[in-house]
Every structure is written in C-alpha cells, then in structure tokens.
Design brief:
Blueprint (H helix, E strand, L loop, with lengths): L9 E7 L2 H4 L11 H8 L3 H10 L3 E6 L12 H18 L4 E3 L8 H14 L4 E4 L13 H10 L3 E4 L5 H12 L11 H16 L1 H4 L5 E3 L6 H12 L10 H8 E4 L6 H11 L4 E2 L9 H10 L4 H16 L2
Parallel strand pairs: 1-2, 2-3, 4-5, 5-6, 6-7, 7-8
Length: 321
C-alpha cells in the first residue's frame, strides 16, 4: 500500500464564518445548515481534531462565500477590518496550525488595497475574493488597485467561487435548481462563474499592466487546465483585437489547488499542462471532508518528490512560509 511521503501537509482552501458578517447574509446564501454550518463557526477543538485525524498539519483559513464581496455602504470597510482582526487573533493564538487569507471590502477598491497591505503586514498570506462584487466581475478596472497592490506586496489573490449572477441562475439553472440545488453551486454554477472570471481577467489586460500578479484557483483550476489548449488556440485566430497567448498568462500567473476535486486524471492533466510547481494541496473543509483528500494524495501516480511539492513545498514557496 502506498503511503504519504514524510512531509508536512498544508491545506489552503479551508473555510470559516465570522458571526458578525454572517448576520448580513440573506437568501440562499444565509445558511449552510447542520454540521457544516457548525463547523464553519468552529476555530478550535472540532476543527483541530478533524485535522489531526486526517493528518493535516496546517490550514490556511479563509472566510467562506459570500464573504465581504456582498457588503456595501459605510460599514463595509470597518466591518472587514474587524473580521480580519478576529481572524488574526485566531492565527496568533495557534500559529503552528493556522495561517490566513484576508477578506477585502471590494465595494471600496482603494480601501480594499489598503486592507490587503495592512493584513499582509500582520502576517496574512494574501487574500481571497469570492465571485461577483455587487454584481460586477472583478476584471473591471475599478478593482485593479487591489491587483496592483497584490503585485507590489508579492502575495496571491485566491479567486474563490460565489453564486452566479441572478440572471444567469434564472436562465441556466432554474429548471433544475429545486431538485438539484448543488447544480447552481459546486456541481457546475461555481465552476462556470469562476472560470469565466479567470478568462475575463486574462482578456482584460490586467496581467499586461501587472505581469507579476499571482492568482490562485481552487478545484483543480475550475476546468481551465483541461481547456487551456483550446482556449489559447481559439483566441489566437484572426479577428481578435490583439495577439495574445492565453497559455502563457495562465501557466505563468496562475496556481491551482486540489480543493474538492480528488481525481487522478484531472490532477495529471493539470500537472501536464501547468507543471508540478503550480499545484497545491487543499481540501475545501468543511464542505468536503479532510480524510478523502489526504488518502487520495497517498495513492496518486506521482513520485514522492512531486507529492511533497503538492502537499506543502509549493505552498511554502508561494506563500513564503
């Protein structure tokens, strides 16, 4: 039987909820229900026990969707600061087990850039953004100050899914959402929305202006490693407004994680398209249980050296841990 190589295991898309922020959630985003919601609020015994049982040494904590993307008004910035300060206290109390990505008040991009810098100085490893920001895609130029600051600070921005635009949900999913509610979320809607955002960012030119910007995608790249050849080839056909290489940008500026996608064929596709140094371990706890992810890494058809890179080596380099 294959075993995990002797190395730390760092999982870096592991979520929690802040009670003050969660009170602002409405509609289908307001509750996860049952033990999942209880786990989201737990930053102590329950979380650590499940990490220990699975053999996970550290979680990089991030606020689960919908997070602060939904905030607007005068309270957005001070509330986000309070959220990040509470998360900083959790990490400070147990720095061997926890690190963190910041939440950002995207309704005020300049303040969001400042909050990113403030939290990085506190030791945060970057930030996580969730889907649409008050119905705007994050490639919109008004959000570019966030990406400029991330490049300057040399920290990644993790693009995590959020619910699709209401019009998209109505047209694409309403026929099946009642009987199959996850089709709007993890089964398909999240993937389409986040992959679309990643492509839009490449097309927007933000990487031309900020060539050292680092972006992370979960779920083994939201299908884009599988599609990178086709997207690159199609965009290079005559008729585009400018010559560009989607492959060059995607494979040089993006990193992907294994969160919630424990598939050998999918992983090998990602490694072949992007290289082993671009793949990092994550579980997506508590929406996905810890043990299957760790057990899967024991059996993937890669050498121990490559497994070490995925389980913690690549994360240590990218997040300077």
């Amino acid at each position: 039987m294959m075993k995990k190589p002797n190395c730390p295991v760092i999982a870096l898309e592991e979520h929690y909820w802040d009670a003050e922020l969660a009170k602002t959630f409405t509609g289908i985003e307001a509750s996860r229900g049952g033990d999942t919601e209880k786990r989201l609020y737990d930053l102590g015994e329950w979380r650590l026990r499940e990490m220990d049982e699975a053999g996970i040494d550290m979680q990089v904590l991030s606020h689960g969707a919908p997070s602060t993307q939904k905030l607007s008004g005068d309270n957005a910035v001070p509330l986000t600061r309070r959220i990040n300060d509470r998360l900083h206290a959790v990490v400070t109390a147990n720095p061997k087990r926890f690190a963190a990505f910041a939440a950002l008040p995207t309704s005020d991009p300049a303040a969001a850039a400042d909050e990113l810098e403030r939290t990085v100085k506190l030791g945060f490893k970057g930030a996580m953004l969730h889907g649409l920001a008050n119905n705007l895609f994050l490639d919109d130029k008004r959000f570019w100050p966030i990406f400029e600051r991330a490049e300057k600070l040399d920290v990644p921005i993790y693009l995590h899914p959020g619910l699709p635009h209401q019009a998209v949900m109505d047209v694409y999913y309403q026929d099946y959402a009642k009987d199959f509610p996850m089709v709007v979320r993890a089964a398909w809607g999240y993937t389409v929305e986040t992959a679309t955002l990643a492509i839009r960012m490449v097309l927007s030119g933000v990487f031309d202006k900020h060539p050292k910007l680092k972006i992370m995608l979960g779920h083994l790249g939201e299908t884009l490693p599988f599609l990178v050849w086709r997207v690159d080839h199609a965009l290079a056909r005559p008729g585009g407004s400018r010559q560009m290489s989607f492959r060059d940008v995607f494979c040089n500026n993006f990193w992907i994680t294994t969160s919630g996608n424990f598939s050998n064929p999918a992983l090998l596709c990602c490694v072949m398209e992007m290289g082993i140094d671009r793949v990092l371990f994550a579980v997506d706890w508590p929406f996905v249980a810890n043990p299957p992810g760790v057990r899967w890494m024991e059996s993937v058809p890669l050498c121990d050296e490559d497994k070490v890179k995925i389980l913690s080596g690549n994360t240590k380099r990218l997040l300077r841990m």
